[in-house]
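Hi team,

As requested, here is the filled-out complex form for the 6-diazenyl-5-OXO-L-norleucine run. I kept the field names the same as last time so the parser does not choke. Let me know if anything looks off before we queue the next batch.

— J.
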Amino acid sequence: MISRGSTVLAAAILAGSSVLLVRPATAAPQQEKQPVAEGYGGAVATVDLDASRAALGVLRRGGNAIDAAVAGAATLGVTEPYSAGLAGGGYIVYYDARHGRVHTIDGRETAPRAMRSSSLEGVPFDDAVTSGLSAGVPGSVAQWELALRRFGTLSLGQALRPAIEVASRGFTVDQTFHDQTASNAARFKDFTSTARLYLPGGAPPAVGSTFRNPELAETYRQLGRRGGSWLYGGRLGAEIVATVKRPPVTPGSTRTVRPGLMELSDLAAYRAVERRPTKVTYKGMDVYGMAPSSSGGSTVGEALNILQALPGVGAHEYLEASKLAFADRGKYVGDIPGVPLGQLLSEGFAKERACLIGERAIPAPAAPGDPDGSYGACRAVPQESAKPIPAEGPETTHLVVADRWGNVVAYNITIESTGGNGIVVPGRGFLLNNELTDFTFGPAPGDPNLPGPGKRPRSSMAPTIVLRNGEPLLAVGSPGGSTIITTVLQILVNRWDFGMTLPQALAAPRATQRNTAQTQAEQGFIDRYGPELTARGHSLVLNPEIGAATGLEFLGGGRVQAVAEPVRRGGGSALVVSGRR
Ligand code: DON
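And here is what came back:
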């Protein structure tokens, strides 16, 4: 059933890509972003050189991985403000070296208490994106405070200092920032606060110019001094609520901007939550991920279990395992009580699902399985009715940090769409999120991801840490909406089944099968696998760019390899504390 030869060939071809030519950077100061760095004493990878430097500076000054991750995330809120920010949310997966344990912190946004399962029904998706209605109660600041309190050594004010400096002194506008601003210009101009900040003189800032955000610097400064309660029930929170309820629409704009339901009491009620990580064991390695409210850990984990139940893994099996895991994600996973996590991640269920995978592609959408604890012979999967799935861009962001003590962070942070809901809080220098568009709009009886009061929209974010024999082996994650799951899965499969190095595994062409009739794929993947997969019943359609991952691999003897994208999204930045032991 599996063509082993093709797997080996695939690895050889992909290994022959330009990535092999990338020479890992050591610890010399970098003027330009470099995608791979190897060394000792701590390491970081983000999409952005300023953010990587901020995190590295914290490590060099004696901070730990959590301190550096918060500093890096806050700096991304300055330099990548369309993907990350204090008014967004995210998930941290953390390996605590002292106790040899993996922890997670859910800093996902919540729906206001006034939200009902029908609140988004009939709202056109595009209207919801740019609205007060889609703004969730921000989770990032509560998450930063909890992470620092539980595992860090710095105060919030100290951790925000590098970001304050970058916001005050400014950063150089690159092509990505320019292009993301330009593609948002039509809606940014519809809000006075956003146009003032991001369209100075009426146009996106020029590539190569210096962009400063003194209002954000001041917001961070005050946040550091006053603490999270300034947001969660205090003055900053009141300003967020006012902006959500009465968005500062530019006079003369014809845009329909729906107000939101958020109240100050929703902010006061917000809590970041520590959760047990998901865990599966794949080829002897323990893969830890994010439990619901994210579907990341359960879906990556289920797909790995399915793959493990097969006699071998090639591109066809990767797509099929992902297809079936997405079918189960859709039916069972959301921020609801009673997600059957144990069964979804059980070997028995995986075997039952795996036995559906044969020579030919299963028609998609495939029906979900039955994770009821009783597993036997294969059950037929009737085809479900097709739902189109849009292309997902590389918004959102993921960073990884390791410190000299062996602690490791994988951290996904987001404001959902590129530019969130497009609305800057006047005078405060940051955009609001539109995370509530991750809910199912409905009507969809029985859907686990319908909106509800205080509920977190189901996420696909999948920050992942892998241990072998109790020691960190790898950390990885990506942006890309629901393609996050397939990107993380594909990187793990590339690394362990296709024999690639981690830099090769990140750079290799991607495909994403999320239980849809067509599999979206990058051109390189279509070129390599198109004929073989088409002959087996897959239908591939071009998605020019999938994901923008970062990762770490622990090479033994204290040596760490930090890896970012060499090309996608303009490339990322990997740094290490020291080139030498
Ligand atoms: O939580 C999620 O899954 C999404 N809100 C992440 C956003 C993202 O990656 C945007 N990409 N298309």
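Two things worth flagging: Confidence is low (pLDDT under 50) at residues 1-22. The CA atoms of residues 301 and 447 lie 21 Å apart.

Thanks,
J.
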